[in-house]
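Hi R.,

Here are the chain sequences for the assembly we discussed:
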Amino acid sequence: MIATARNLADEERELAARAGGGDHAAFSVLFERHKAGIYRFCLYMLNDAAGAEDIYQEVFINFYRACREGKEMTNVRGYLMTAARTRCLNALKASRRLTSIDDFDDAGVAPDETLADTAEHLRDALQRIPPQYRESFLLFELEGYSYQEIGEQLGITHDVIKNRIYRAKQSLQKILRPLLRE
Amino acid sequence: MSIHEQITALLDGELIDTSSVGELLHVLAVSPEKRDLLVEQLVLKRRFAASAATIVPPARADLAIMGGLAAIDAGFAGGGAAAAANDDALAPVPIAPRIPGWRMLMYGVMTLVLMLGAFGAGYMLRNDATLVNTSASATGSPTTGSPVDDAALAAARDSIARLQRAMATLAAGQPNTAGAVESRSTYAPARTPLSSESRTTETRAAESRTTEPRSSDSQTSVPVAANDRDSDYLIPSHPRGADGESLSRAGRGVTRPGRSPELEPMTALAAPEAGPIGLQLGVRNNFRLSLPRVYGLTPAPTVLLDREVVGSIALGGADDGLFSRVRAGAAFGQTQFSMVFHSNTGGEEIDTIYEQSPQPFYGRAFLAPELVRFDRFAGLLEVGGGYSGAGGFGTVGFNIEYRPLDEIAIHAGASTWLLWTSFREAVDLSTNVNAHLGFMYGF
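And here is the predicted structure of the full complex:
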């Protein structure tokens, strides 16, 4: 499995290098492999389809440009996710939707009874928890990053990640309890 | 760990201790409520996974991306100025340390001015008594008041010096008899003719068992200083006779009652004498504001966060002087810093990421010169630095100390901690602004 992961990383590095030479086919392989995860992450972070779409496009356009400029891509997935994360956090900050965890109290949150769709409930619940919890939860649960990988990407320790993910799950469980017990 | 945390750890593969796993499974087996928590977490995972699988990027976005590739290729293929300009604008650039803007510089200058002002005020206050004590012995004009005839002033000083010598002689054991008084009139040819006011002074001196030997052939050792500069006597700024006449007219000696050299000089403005406390140990609680503000801050899980154990020792003695009261100290505690990272995704400004550091332990040392002291209050400057799990940092602050008892000190103040961090070739400054409250015990 380690050998497979290493092979995958080498393969992606090679593809990025070829994309840097103008090889659209190589870029397409990387694009198809990672596009769903990037768009999904952006959508869950912002809960705004238009905003997610804009960031999604920016991320891949800039990735191709960086390849053409000769930047070595040692970790394509990490590069793309970091770019998406940065832009999402700045978009939230710009729209003043970044609130401090100090002000967050999950004791009072409750599911929105007007939402009929399960997917809407889930996205709404994610918006009710702080972005720092949200991103850690998304990276771990949906994108399959390990605690170590999340730590390397966010520059935080294992214990902090563990605490964030725990707090995210605890809050989501409280918010979504009626839905989870159906 | 709570049961909820254990379930999360189990499902995330973080619960690696087999005994803990066994214990948790047993708890889940016997408790329906706790099993419900496990089921909820499993359902949560499944629901999110199912929802995520239905999310696909819109086709128009994919087309826009592929179409954008051609535009980028054209820019590179065109070469020349266009491509170069594009490269310059978009090429990844190393992030240099930020130069503070004018606003930051202004705050820094104001802070420095305030600190220097406090420092200067403390210095001036500490030396005020010395200025008062030495003002009388300055040659030439007095420190305040109208100009006085130098000759008259010198005459006044001579009179006082004679009185001092007389009192010193008396203190040494010589009797005060009428003969001695007569001898004064006989053996003091150089005496200045005395007015009635001066005689009054002399009578008082006699009553206080003084004699007035001839200044020229006095056999008595004079304990006073050889010159007026070291005199303990205070000459008023307006040397006058008892009736208020100016010396410049009367040429008389100062009618201020003479004082024995053994008497304490007036030191009304001297600072209360308080010996320095040696070793002090205590605790301090910091009320911290980390800058830049980071949203999504993880609450402090430990009781040690923002608390420190601090000790200090006095370096100087009780001598008067600018740095005579300096303390050196050290502290150990736990804190947290906000940090700024720049991820290099193309050199754009939006690549800034704000993060909260873990909660590192730190050790720091400081020097604390005392700027001002009044009664049981003291104001100290604290300057130092330290090292933490997040890196090295500098500290500067101010501390107000109150000693209800000599051994006990309660202090409060504020400080700024400055942490320089680097991440992926970028260097940034993080700042913790602390207000603190503490208690120390001296040995």
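The mean pLDDT of chain B is 67. Chain B has four domains: 3-53, 59-90, 136-250, 272-442.

Let me know if anything looks off.

Best,
T.
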